[in-house]
Structures are given as C-alpha cells and as structure tokens.
Records
---
Amino acid sequence: MNLMNAIQVMGGLAIFIFGMKLMSAGLHRVAGERMRSILRMFSANRFVAVATGAVVTGVIQSSGASTVMVVGFVNAGLLTLVQAIGLILGSHIGTTVTAQLVAFDLNWLIMPSIIIGLIFSFIPNRKVSNWSETILGLGFLFLGMMTMSNELRALSSYEPFVRALRSVNCQPVNGVMPLMPMLGALAIGAFATIAMQSSSACTGVLVALGTANLIDIHTALVMIMGANIGTTVTAQLAAITANRIAKQAALANTLANTIGALVIMVSLWFTIDGKPVFLKLVEFLSFGAGIPRQIANAHTIFNVCTTILWLPFIGLLAKLCEKLLPVKELSQVVFERLEPHLLSTPAIALTQTASALRKMLKKSWKMIDCALSVYNRNDERNQAVEKQLEQREADIDRRQKAITEYLSKLMLRPLNAKESEQIPMLLHCTNDVERIGDHAEIIHATVLRLLEQNLHFSPDAEKEYDQLHDTLAELAHATIKMLEAPSAEYGIQAARVQERMQIMLDTSETKHFTRISNGECKPQVGMLFLELIEEMRKISRHLENIHERASSFYGKFPKARNRIQKNAKPAEETA
C-alpha cells in the first residue's frame, strides 16, 4: 500500500511538471512574436533589466531555463555582462510565480481548465491553440498538486518516510536551529532541484508537503535556500562550451544565489521574539496564512530580498566574476551568432540567423568586389584579398553549412506559422549568398585569362565594365542594408538599383555585340566581356532574390512584397 502511495506521489509530481511545461510552452508561443522586441529593453538600465528578467521568467516558469537563455544571449554578443546580471536577478523573482499559484486552493479550476483547454485545442486558429496549451497546463498543474497532496497525507503514516523527514527537521532546539539538519535540508533542496531542473517544481513539492502537514516552515525555508542554489547548475552546464563572458554570467548567477542563500541561512540564527528574523518577516507578510502559503511567500521574499540587495552592487558582482574568470584580450572572445541555446526562443534564433546571413553576404560581396577589381583596380589591398579568395570561398561554404544545420534544428522546435514560413526564406537566401561566392571564382578565372594573354577591353567596354561594377556594388550594399535595418525605404532603394542594373546589363550587352560586329573589339575579348556581364547578371539576380525575400522575412513592406510575387526568380534559375 505504501509503495502504491509513493508511485502515486511520483505520478502527481510528473503531472505537475508536465502541466508546468505545457503552460510554459503555450505562454512562450503566445509571447514569441514579442521576444525580439524584448531585446531592445535590455540595454535601458538595471531596473528595466530586472523587470524584463522577471517577466520573461514568469512566462518560461523556470529560472534555470531563463538563465540558460541569458547565457546564450551573452555568448551571441547580444548582452553585456552587467545587462545579463540584471536579467538573471529578475529571473529569480519571476520563477516564484508557480509556487504562488499552487499555494492557492484552486482545485475547482482543474476540470474546467482541462475541458476548456481541450476544446480550444480543436480550434484551428493558431493563437487560440497556443492558449489551449496554457489553459490545459494550468489544469494539469493543479491536478498534479492535488494528487501529490492527497497521497502525501497517506504517506504520513509510513514510518520510514516520516523518519527520513525528521532527520532533516530544522525546528529550533533551545531557540537555535540545528546546523547538521540544516545542511542536510540544504543539500536535499539543491539536489532535488538539480534532478527536476526547476526550483519552481521543487517549491511546488514543498508546498504539497506543507499541505499534508509533513514539513514545518523552518525545514521548508532551508530547502528553499538549497533549491535556489541547485537551480544555478543548469546555467553552469550551458556555459561549458560558451565563451568566457558567458561563463562569467553563469558564475554571477551562482554567486548571487549562493551568497544570498548563505546570508538568509545565517539570519535564521538571529531571533526576534524567539523566532528567526527571516521567518518573522515571512509570517508578517503572510498575514496569518497556513504553512503552504508561508512556503510560497518565503520563496518569493527570498528572491525579492536578494535581488534588492544585489541591485546596487551589480557592477561589483560583474567585476568579481571578471576577476575570478579573467579575459586576457576582449578581441579574443568569440561571439557565436548561431547560439544553440537560443533555439528555444525561435523569434530570436531567426533574428540571429538573419545576422549570420548578413555577415555571410558581406564576405561574399567582398570576394566579388575583389575578383572584379583584379582587372583594373588591383591595388595592394585588393591583391591581399585576392590571395585569400580560396580560403574565403571555403569559409562561405562553412557558413552556409552552419546556417543550414542551425535552421534544421530550429525546424524541430515548436514554431508558429510566421516562424515556419521564415525558415525556407532564410534557407533560400543562404543558398543565394553561397552561389554569389561561387561566382567570384568564375569571375576571377575569367579576368586572369584576360591578363595572362595581355588582352584588354576597348575604352567604351572598360567604361561600361566600371559602371556595371559600381552599380552592382550599390545593389549589394542596398541588399545588406535590408538585412541590417529593414525599412520600406531600403526596399524601394534596392528595387530601383536592381531595375537600373538590369537595364545597364541589357544595354551593355547590345552595345558590345555591335562593337564586335563593327570590328571595334576582338571576338576573343568580346566573348570574355560577355561572360563577365553574364556573371554580373546572375549575381544581381541572387541579390534581388535576397532583398525581396528579406522584405517578406521582416513582413513590413507590402509594396516590396508585391514586387516579389511578380518578379522574383526561383533560386534554381540563378545558379
């Protein structure tokens, strides 16, 4: 019978964690469209950072997952260490929402939530279906909590279980909380949180124990301290492969929670009216509520107090982390645009992919510019780039592979309709950029054939060649701008340059045929000139595909989008 009770308790815990994750996933998807804009708030000030961290973690419902995301931001170069610490402190407050929810007697919500959530799941509208997960998750959260509480009451008569709890009983002896049981309770809280990967889940179990009258508030307080230490392990694991600054952010998370927990632990040995100072504060703010509410409040008060205490010293904490994990040269720190931990936030992962694509396009254009310049603008700087063309081509191929693999992993994550549509666009753009790099090799080989045979274009052809080169550069820069700061103005600018480029290519091709017919240009040279014009045409089409797809990706330029549907060329045609 007792074994069956234990299985029921574990089943209740499983339902509780499943409900928490389901509710979090639904809220995360509902807020996903706004996750990009949240980044803009990070740099405001430490107070905004703390508030943002609290809100984001309130959605994710796990400070561990939230700090992993922050570590990812730092590793991607999106946040400074000081900004990251502000977010981490805020996440400690946001993670207390679950415990506050389950401390209420809301069992009457279980069946209505499950029924409404299930009904919403059959509605095809994406926004409604996202809310269905949130509502279903809420129902399962309370169902798991009720199951745990009921079965734990049955286990209260099981002597080995009661004896185990007594071994870490932290109730004061002669007015002083015993040290060894405190250390045991601290360790249990830490290891339980590491196992469940969520301090919210651990606190939920403590609330269930409190509801079943199996744990006193003194022991629960110490276990909460342990849970807040244990939750920092997740970020430490995430930072193992990250850069040094990301490791500093993970260390800041550990130090903030550990030092805060130790300070509160010490305060438990100081009493007011025979009660520990911190417990006195919890009781005062609980307004005479029972043990479950006091446990939830203790979790919240601890995190709010430690955040307030650290807030003036964020800079000092950052310097301490920099001292413990020093960076010799900031220039040696590698920021990973395609940060794997950001895959859990698809909107931001897509933004990072666009950033990586922009960097790749700049490098591809540098190769084209160099190859075209070899003919008549081959100064020392261009010659240095020319020597690296082969390595640069290999680098472009590596970048294409990295972006493709990143997007492939992202496709396995839960995405909304808009995010799903953006992935094929980015993949097509990545292929276009890679092919631009391939054309650099063809152009370079063609120009070398000219120079090796001491052949030159006619004066008119050279003038057209320079004009086409300059206009192609203008088109490339306009396309890069579209990826850097999307706006209707840049979209129109790119479209106009593209039209002008096509007209110039057609005109130059016609004129050159005339020059060959009139004998003004040798057929051998003329054919090489036409080959170069054709390469420029292909490159301009790739750039056109990119800036048109970019307008669809950002979804802000209806006029540009109409042009895409009318004029865009399939990637296969521009190979």
---
Amino acid sequence: MNILGISAYYHDSAACLLKNGEIIAAAQEERFTRKKHDSNFPTHAINYCLKEAQIVASEIDNVVFYEKPFVKFERLLETYLAFAPRGFLSFIKAMPLWVKYKLFQKSLIIKELQNTLSPKVNWKDRLLFSEHHLSHAASAFYPSPFKRAAVLTLDGVGEWTTTSLAVGKDRDLKVIKEIHFPHSLGLLYSAFTYYTGFKVNSGEYKVMGLAPYGKPKYTKLIKEKLITIASDGSFKMDMSYFNFATGLTMTNNKFNKLFGGPPRLPETKLTQRDMDLAASIQKVTEDIILRIAKNIARETGERNLCLAGGVALNCVANGILLREKIFENIWIQPAAGDAGGALGAALTVWHMNQNGERNLKKNPDSMKGSYLGPEFSDSEIKNQLKSCGAVFKKFKKDDLIDSVVSALVKKKAVGWMQGRMEFGPRALGARSIIADPRHSEMQRQLNLKVKYRESFRPFAPSVLSEHVSEWFELDENSPYMLIVAGVKKQKLRKMTTREENLFGIEKLNIKRSSIPAITHVDYSARIQTVHKNLNPFFHALISGFKEKTGCPLIINTSFNIRGEPIVCSPKDAFKCFMGTNLDLLAIGTYLLFKEDQHEYLKENYRDKYTLD
C-alpha cells in the first residue's frame, strides 16, 4: 500500500511516501524550488517521492494532508469574535487569502494533485485529512524505537492546539491532553524572536544561539507579567502584551514598555539587552518543558518520551531534559517542524486507519538516519557539473577521503555532498560544509566568509559515535544533532580573570577548549553522533581525520548560505561553492578545487550571491 503525506500552505511544505508502512522518501519543497521555507503545494517533492518509490500516480492508495483547514478557519473566526473589534485589521487582511485559497483547500488540493500527478485519478476518494498535532505526534512516536511511549508536541499553533500530550502503544496513539490557542509556548518564543529583530518561524534558533551571550535577567518579569505557569507545566499567557491574535505583529506597545523600548530593527547591532532577553526566554522555555515532562512522567508512568513540533528543535532544552533523567529514553523527530507533519500524516493513515503493523527498528529507529531525499549518480553529477562549466577530477573513494582530510588539516573549508539529502532542517553529513574544529578562528571565518551570517552563530560537531563520551558530557546517541551537551572538562582551557569578566559578543573569540570552533560560550556544543551503519562514508571521513590528527570530530554546518535552503543538486552545490570562500567541493567521487575554476565563473557567481 502506497500512502502520500503532504504538508503545505503555511511554511516548510513537504511530501513523504510510505510503502506498506516503510518510509521510502521525504523532502521539503524548498530544496527543489530554492525558495527558503517554501509554503506552496509540494509539487517537486511529490514528484521526487514517486520517482524514488518507482511508482506512478495511479498506484497511490491514499493522499493525506497534515491538518484540517476548515477547523483552522473556525479558529480564525472565533478569535476575531473573542477579540472584536481589536482583531478587525488582521481579520480583513486574512479573509481574502482564506476565501481564495484556504477555505476551499480540499478542492485546491485535488486540483493540484490533478495538475501534479494525473487528472485521470479520482483524488477526491483517495484524499484524507489528519489533525496538525496528531500528525506531529505520529511523526514522533511511530518511527521511534519504542514499543510504547509518552509523546509531547509543542509548536506555535495547529488548528487550535499549541501543546499536546499523547500516549502511544504499539500502533495505537491517543491524544489525552491539550493546550489551546492563543496560549502557546511556540508563539511566546516567536514573540521574543520578533522583538529581538529576527524573523518569526525561521529565526528562533538564532535566539537560542544568542542566549548564552546574555544573562536571564528578565526571567522573573516574564513569569510575573507574560505567562502564568501551573505546577503541571500548563500555562496561560496575558494577551494584553501580545498582538499576534488581533494584529499584524507579534508584540505591542505594552510589551515594548515592559522591556524598555521598541523591537530591534532587523540587521541592526545587537545589544546586551537583546542577549539578555534571549537568555531569559530560553530559560523560561526550559523551565516550562521540564515541568510538563515531570508531570507527564507522573501521569502516564511511561519510561520513554517522544518529541515533535517546532519547539522540539530547541536542542538546548532537549539536552537539559535528557540530563534531568525524567525519562529513561528520549527520541526526537529530526523533521520536528511542519515538514515532518507530512510524514506523521501518512503514518496516521497507515497505523490508525489501515491498522498497519509497526516494524520496530532499534538501530536506531525507522528514519534511516533521515537520509530520505534525492541522491545523484556519478554520471548525473558529471553531467550537471559540465553544464556549469566546472573543472573537476574523479577519485577513488579512499583517495577522495585522503584529499579532503589533508585539506581540512590545512584549515580549508570543504563543501561535502554525498548520498541522499537529509529530511529536516539539519545537515547530517550528506549536504554539509565541514572544517577542522581545532582552530579558534574557524567559527568566525565560516560565518562571515562562507555562510554570510551573524558572527555569534555557533557551529556543531559531528563526532564518531564510539568516541562521543570521551569529548562530551553525553552517553547517548544523537544522530540528528538535536541535543546540546557540555564539552568534557579535561578538554577545556582555563580562562583568565579578564576573559571570565567579558560580556556579550566580546566572549566570541576567546579560546575555550581544544576544539574551540565548536565550543559555545557556555562550554556546550550541539552534537551529531556519526554511526557507521547510517552514513559509512561520512564515518570513514571523520575516521580518516582522527587517524591524522587524533581528533574524532569535525565541524559540520549546513551546505548553504544565509537566506537559501540547503543544497539539493550538484548544480546547487557548485553555485554555493563558487559564490563563497569554500576551498574544496566533494560530490560523489568528484573533487573540485577553487583554484582550478575559471576566473569568469568566480566573478559571475560572487556577483549573483551579492545580488541575492
């Protein structure tokens, strides 16, 4: 049985295909269209999924959408009535879009399926709808290695739900508790994202990365004025400080007065206040998640916890949750945001509608390392590179690894594109930029010269799983880079008194450990454990680096620049390679050296990236 899951029309559209319950393919639409967070119908992602599954449109048994649009419209109407007349401006702004597209979304989806796949198939009879948070919960529980577990989902808002607790047993999954809009931990975090000058729905991880530079001095004020938190972790927000339910911004003048001024304008200089606000909302988020988790453990008696929803991408909170040992085991969906809803929607149909069995996989789960996107053959790579005018050389795999390791040791930045593309927001060694973590200047160099992004943004280490506990305060697997843990004390460098007393961004360029490029200012790192069975080539590369340096880890950041999606194709990779200061590009068995490329191409791609 073939089930196609889709998410669309908000942000991060995606498609996923299951064959008899097995995840065959999954990808975000942005990777194909090159439009970051593309919310359009996932035409390209759907076509890819069918190609990967080697099926035609008529062989799709069910198409399932990840939420119920009419229930979402009901929320819009009820919110307007509840806040009338304050919500009138946002209401009249939203209505044309709803009337034109979203209110009749079933018809729109059927039309898109006819245009994308086939007009001859009766899609009306094959189309189903899941619920937003049920899709999240299904994406967390069903691929997990647990026979039974509690499931916590946290995000901005689905139809009505913003937080849900479910319990999964075998193929059964039941939601037992919910918190409803407008009370939302995700939207509270997004309000501070907006207020500190970052983009809502994409800049939240920047706030998390900024938090260690500040002090949580506003935590008490947030808890006293903005949100009331019960002992079980449930919460209510004082909506008089927020504008997202009634207006066109996240916060209002009352919020501004509380924190001493208007929101930071995007791209302006970060102040100590911005850093302290980031630290404060991060601390509040951690406190709420811990309270909820403790209550879940008491109420359900479950020993395993699964997480999904956009808030589950807060890897700092995940690390704290893990260290508190409230549950014996924790598993987090790597595509925890709305893209993962496509996967969860398909899984709900397979397990709950079709009574399909779960085939539990313990090593480590059913996500296949989240390597679920397109892969390109050597001939496809060669043809695409030729069409770009690239100069490249073919290598045997062992020789390619030797060349890349040698480049890393020489402080070179390398684009690494191998195998199937990752599903979800993290680069996991298939579409990555890699470098040597032992050099203190590497973080700043990569941020400013390659990624073209804020200098404070941290980089993650990819470490051989068999060596993780020697370098980090972590004894668990973290294959999806969703857990933050401390660097081992014996790897740290003793700070001088002057260095200890530095504030804010002044802390950035201080060497803190023997692996300074991935050691954050609070001595932590966002860790990916690399497993030989999940990604043997990436594992072999890091093993080669260890043999040469004694260090079993490398820097791993996503293969893209600021404002663009992670690369998908060889053409995308070549464009990013040429438009940045990357020194080397490894695609399949081909290597490209920057100095070998034609000068006119270097100038052409740099100009294009400047215009972008």
---
Amino acid sequence: MAFDGVTIANVVSELKKELMGGRLYKIAQPETDELLLTIKQPDGTRKLLISAEASLPLLYLTKANKPSPMTAPNFCMLLRKHLQNGRITGITQPGLERIVRMDIEHLDEMGDLRKKTLIVEIMGKHSNIIFCDDKDIIIDSIKHISAAVSSLREVLPGKPYFVAATQDKLDALTADYAAFQSALSVRPQPVFKALYGSFTGISPILAQELCYEAGVDGDLPAAALTGSDYGRLYESFSRMAAAVREERFCPNIAYTGDSPVEFCALPLTMYGYGAPQAESSCGSEPGPAGTNPVNAAPSSGDHVVSYDSMSALLEHYYAEKNILTRIRQKSADLRRIVQTALERNVKKYDLQLRQIKDTQKRETYRIYGELLNTYGYSAQPGAKSLQALNYYNNETVTIPLDPTLTAGENARKYFDKYGKMKRTYEALSQLTEEVSMEIQHLESISNALDIALYEEDLAQIKEELTESGYIRRKGGNGRKQKITSKPFHYISSDGFHMYVGKNNFQNDELTFKFATGNDWWFHAKQIPGSHVVVKMGSARELPDRTFEEAARLAAYYSKGRGQEKVEIDYIQKKHVKKPNGAKPGFVVYYTNYSMAIDSDISRIQLVMEE
C-alpha cells in the first residue's frame, strides 16, 4: 500500500490534464500540515488536496470541501499573498522521485511577472510542502526542518532547495539492460527486494508484480537468477517503464474477499487482473470521471477493482483512514481525560471490592455474639475459646475469646465488630454501585470517541464531559455549545431507516424523543455501545434481514466490534425505560430478545449527511 513514484507519476499525469493553465482561485489550510487549493479552469473549478501529515501524506484531486480555521495560518497567508490568481505553468516529477513540482506565474506588487514553485514531497514522516522562488531558494515551508532535526538537509526560509540523495538508486525510466542486471546481481537479497532497493519509484508490491509477470520467483536470491530470468524480468521491467513514460496508467485496488490489500497505478495481474500491461492501460470502460470504480469483480476471493483516475482511487482508499487519523489527533485531549478518569475509577472500584471482601465475616461475628449471650455462662474464666452449638445450622463452632474479658464483654466486642462491618458494607455497596455506573459511563464515552468521525461529534462528547464535571466550562456563562452532529443514518436491504447514536446524548435523543413505541431498539448486551433504532413507519412487521442488519450495526458501533460474534439485545422501544437521575445513555429493560451476530456492516447502505 505504498504511495510510490509510479503512483506519483499517475497523479502528475492527471494534474497536468486537469490543472495546467488554471488559476489559483482559493488557497486554504484546513489542517496544520494540509492545503486545499481551488483552481479555476474555463470549464469549471478543480480542488487539489495536499497533505504532508507524517502518517498519511496524500496528493489527489477531490470534489469534497473542508472547513478552514477562522484565522488562516501564516503559511497559508504567505501563499495567498504570492500565489492568489497565479497561473499554473508546469507540473513535473523529477525522475520517479516522490516529489511534485508546481510552477506558478503571478504578478508582484509592481505588476511584474514572477515565477514561484510549490514543491510537494510525499515521503512518509519526512513529507513536506515547500514554497520556493524562481532560483529554488526556500521562501517558507509547512514544516521547518533545522540542522538539529536532520543532518542531511535544512528546510528553512533562505536555504537553497535540493533533493537529498539518501539512497544510491537508479532511475527506473532510463536504466538499460546492463545497468539493470548489474544493479540486481550485486544485491544479496530476494529478487523483489533487490528490485525496489535498486530503482527509484518502485514499491514492494510493484516489484512483486514485475516478478509475477516475468514468471520469476520473487523470493529467490538475486544471485540465483539465470540469463533467461534476467531477460524476462527486464522485459517486464521495460514494459512498466514504457507505460509510465507514455502515461498509460490503470489505477486499481486488489482485494482479498471484501478487504483491500494493495493498490497500484499499473495492473496487478497477480491478484486476478486480466489485462496485459503491455496491451492496455486499464482494459475496461472508464466510469464517470473522478468518481466511481469500474470493472468491479465479485466480492469473493482475490480480485481487482480498477478506477478511472488515481485521485478517485486515493480518495476512496484513504478517505476513511484520513478522517480517522485526523479525528484521533483532535480527540487526543478528550481521550486522555477519559482514560485518566477511567483508570482512577477502576482503581477505586478494585479497592472498594477488597474492602467489601474484608466485611464478609460480619455475619460470623454476629452469630458469635449471639452464641456467647446464649452459652457464655459455660465459659471458664481466662478461657481462650468456647465450643457452642450453632442453632442456625446445628453445627458445633469454636468461638475465639479474649481471656482478659468476660463472656458478656467478648459478646459486646463481637457485636461492635459486626456493627462496624455492617455499616462499612452498606456504605461500600452504595459506593461501588455508583463507581461501577461511572465506569460504565466513561467506557461509553470512550466508545463514542472511537466512532467519532467529525469535529461536531467531538464537540458533543466534550459537552457531555463538561456536564459530568470532567472539563471546566470556559467563560463562566454556563451556555452549552451549539451542536450540529447527527446520528448515523442507514437504509436496510428491505428499505427500513436505521439510526445509530454516536454518543450518549444522541442515544437518549434517538431512544426517547425520536423513536416511537413500536420502533425496534437494539444494543450490545452488557457492553458499551450505541443505541440503534429501526423506524417501522407504516409497516406492521420487520423482516428478518433487517433485524440482522440492525443487530450488526449495534455490534459494529460497540466495544465488541471485531469479535467473531457479539450478543445483541433487541426490543420494541416502548419497553425501554430511563431511570430517574440516570446518566446519559443509560436505560433499563426487562423483557427482550437476543441474537449473536458478527459486526460486518460493509453491505449496509449509509446515507451521507447533508
């Protein structure tokens, strides 16, 4: 799943077709390490997303918009100052490096024509967006890299820009047969590793594909290749290089079952893609530009789904992952608050359970006191114990005595111990119940953080933590923050509307304000999770398939997600009650049905929020 040089070449090919000659209409910086450029063309606008996020750097055309901060960051303001209304005159990739250069012409304050370059480096944790003048002197960058951080290259204003030569790799687009054979023969590695270790732009998956096409075992040591092996492998390698030079790409994702395992800008024949790379760039009819996958195979076994553009593939493949990565970063403070409170309450609960365990002998002490009152006359002065018949179970017990006290005094001592332990037990029983409920509440908030997708979802969770006293409300005006987050909305295969609460506030809203008496209600049994409501509408019965799909939603949006089976309780909403004073999301029900089901919701239709 590498964003390799060949993938970059495919993206550059698309950008040249879509953006060349266009004017930079809007420049936004939605995240600290991300740009969203809007480019005006005669036939409409295009949006280019550029992310230098360390764990998920991206570059692709998109139709989606993203909210920007109220105050634009300094880097964004600098780009607006220089590049607003600038015209894109060139989009290039040096060799097969994971670098894209965008040349932009603009008018300066004096009305003179100037040239600037925006350089995007897609290099994992070293990814960056660098703004240079016409002499490749760095004006600024979205990430500043000093000599203390990198000994290879400084990325700071005023420094010259250059590509750091960190690896001695050959250019895959220009290497001839002699260079190809020489590079592989000296590497004491499996063939596929020698391939991507010797040439720029080649990822492990593409190297394995080249070996597969050539009929060479990629796991063989490179030194074991014969002359004919080198010939077939170079032929496959040459076809790949020609396809890149001629911009004959075929973006496709390889699946095993329903799970995407790899993607590539060239056909992955080893996963069942049938089009020979030398004959066709894609081997299927293109779908609507930038939107839909084409040539989709059945969702069983190894298969490949091809896309009409690399941008469409990347947006589909990384959209959810990118959202989750961003929301994880933004929810870090809330997660820390919840985790700290959860750990503190779990420790308190464990201590209280141990203290309750210490009170288990209270009934024994009460019985000792009663037996001493009954049989104490037979105790000898100075005796250390007394044997007596326990009239509760007709068994003889030995009662330890304090030899310095009388039988009556020993009885009072046991009654005092009993009274103290009884009071402790009663107090701890109430406290443990309260702490247990608080742990359940915090675990439900933790689950809500796990399923949150947008900042609006986090705002509602933060409001709940504020009302629960874990976060102090700022400003002192006591006003609640305006919430725009909505529950997930799904459509069952039978056409029924299914709603899933994203947090405890939404769970209460769904169950007690939105749902009506005959609607069906689902929840994972005895584990934190979302409330799922299926609206009955005018229907009298719910089909079995819809019951199962709603149960899968309840399993997926719970802490049981990923388990082979999750037990789900379901009942009509009219039987679900909320106790007085209960915490958000907490309900009780007494007569319900149950089913054990998996948490696979891949075939359930999600209705996108407007």
